């Protein structure tokens, strides 16, 4: 992970994508302003991880991106996972190495609740949101099109954060409206970033454990249940089961 993120942070994958051709380690180091020896070792490691390809010409190595690198690792790619890797590189992996409470280690706080820790500052909110947006840019459309949701016109995205998933949904099902239900501090930030032209996406503040959830034909819980124990998850799912309207979709 650290090798991949380092190459991404330095701009290796973007340089190779923009060049449209393979380059030597010396050329890459010069253009990026790095150590030649260090860059050569980094490139060789990336080849070993199948992030880069290498071919020899006149007994010299020339490096180029793999399809995976062009798609996910170049920061200029619309499906880039740079922010997602940044989140893991800066927060998740260091906390694993320390061996303490992960949430407290990740966010340098006494808070034990993951989402309260994430929302402890605007900077943490932004970092987490950027990472999640990257993830949805990669596979959001595939997830939303794996089943036919066209009969669900009123949708509630619980804990949706930004509008990344909602955008994918309405792009596939343009007759639908999505309400993102999240904590007040999350909604405040997200609303400031949404275009006024996106009238099919609305926001509602609240705590879905303690407050009534918006009425909807379909409730989406994407990548949030892992944050709580089974008892709390069962409480939330039972609440949503009671809120669901029977017979909405044939």
TrEMBL record:
Q: Which domain of life is it from?
A: Eukaryota
Residues forming the O-methyltransferase dimerisation domain are 2-74
- Which InterPro entries does the UniProt entry name for this protein? COMT-like, COMT_C, COMT_dimerisation, SAM-dependent_MTases_sf, WH-like_DNA-bd_sf, WH_DNA-bd_sf
UniProt keywords (A-Z) are:
Melatonin biosynthesis, Methyltransferase, S-adenosyl-L-methionine, Transferase
Q: Which protein are we looking at?
A: Acetylserotonin O-methyltransferase
This chain's source organism reads Phrynosoma platyrhinos (Desert horned lizard)
What does the function comment of this entry state?
Catalyzes the transfer of a methyl group onto N-acetylserotonin, producing melatonin (N-acetyl-5-methoxytryptamine).
Q: What PANTHER family does this protein map onto? A: O-METHYLTRANSFERASE CICE (PTHR43712:SF2), PUTATIVE (AFU_ORTHOLOGUE AFUA_4G14580)-RELATED (PTHR43712)
Tagged with keyword DNA repair: no
Could you tell me which residue ranges the O-methyltransferase C-terminal domain spans?
A: 96-247
Give the Enzyme Commission number: 2.1.1.4
Q: In which pathway does it act?
A: Aromatic compound metabolism; melatonin biosynthesis; melatonin from serotonin: step 1/2
